Amino acid sequence: MADSTPRFSAQDVTVVFFLGGPGSGKGTQSANLVKDYGFVHLSAGDLLRAEQIREGSQYGELIKTYIREGKIVPMEITVALLSNAMADSLATAPPPAGTKARFLIDGFPRKLDQAVFFEKTVCPSEVVLFLDCPEEVMETRLLKRGETSGRDDDNAESIRKRFRTFVETSMPVVEDFEKKGKVVSVKATGTVDEVYETVKTGIEARGVHPR
Ligand SMILES: Nc1ncnc2c1ncn2[C@@H]1O[C@H](COP(=O)(O)OP(=O)(O)O)[C@@H](O)[C@H]1O
Ligand SMILES: O=c1ccn([C@@H]2O[C@H](COP(=O)(O)OP(=O)(O)O)[C@@H](O)[C@H]2O)c(=O)[nH]1
Fold first, then answer.
1. Which residue minimizes the CA distance to atom 25 of ligand 1?
2. Mean pLDDT, rounded, for 92-110
3. Which of 64, 78, 107, 181 has its CA 20 to 30 A from that of 46?
4. 18 Cβ contact partners less than 8 Å away, ≥ 6 residues apart
5. Is 49 annotated as a binding residue?
6. Minimum CA distance residue for ligand 1 atom 16
7. Where is this region: NMPbind (predicted)?
């Protein structure tokens, strides 16, 4: 199985998890956060899609099937991809002297065991940003995105399965972090700019300021 042992110290990084249903706007808002707050954006889904098509990957077929079915890929694979991407970023683009690298981990953790495993073996999260969005809105956005995204899972059937996984498996992660007082919850139905204003207010209240 993939090796997820980190090649860096948890002391050198700040991790913000970015959660929300499929199509809630995580990728869109991440671009803003990178620009203003100096985050390195790591999308678990993007890393899995890149691994799926990487020549020589032993996980290509497995990842393809899991993503199309809206299921959660076994966590060892995803955590190894994230941990390696963090180490690569620290090696190639270290943060300014005297500051910690900031990682915005988008679309992860989606299952309780992933959250526990990542926080134990890689690094605890500082804040959990959650985009709260009704299914009807997410569905409309995803079907529109599907016209151009080329993604295997932006079709009505996969979307239905992803919603189910989100409600049954991923919402319990958000609820668990909520009990720990870590969640900044943002209503995601406004315009991109309106949502971003609320995101900024929320994370700045948790001590994350522009960089
Ligand atoms: N606030 C918004 N209002 C309208 N459309 C949005 C908004 N935020 C994102 N979108 C669009 O909805 C789709 C899904 O957004 P995306 O950021 O890819 O979501 P996620 O990363 O959570 O799956 C994209 O096509 C994006 O352009
Ligand atoms: O930690 C993760 C993140 C994503 N995925 C898979 O990747 C898909 C797409 O996730 P992504 O975050 O790219 O898109 P979203 O569903 O949020 O639009 C999910 O449905 C899962 O099948 C996964 O297995 N583990």
1. 145
2. 95
3. 181
4. 26, 29, 30, 104, 105, 106, 107, 129, 131
5. yes
6. 25
7. 43-73
183 annotated to a ligand binding site: no
Half-sphere exposure for 14 (CA within 13 Å, toward CB): 16
Work out the average pLDDT over 40-48. 98
**Residue 109 marked in a binding site:** yes
Closest to 124 in 3D by CA, of 51, 16, 28, 200: 16
- Quote the CA–CA distance of 59 and 164 in Å, as a whole number: 24
**What residue has token string 């110290």?**
9
Tokens 């985009």 belong to: 131
Span between the terminal Cα atoms of the chain, in Å: 37
Global pTM value: 0.97
Q: Residue 11, exposed/middle/buried by CB under 10 A (0-12, 13-18, 19+)?
A: exposed
The residues facing 104 across adjacent strands are 16, 41
C-alpha to C-alpha distance for 14 and 140, rounded to whole angstroms? 34
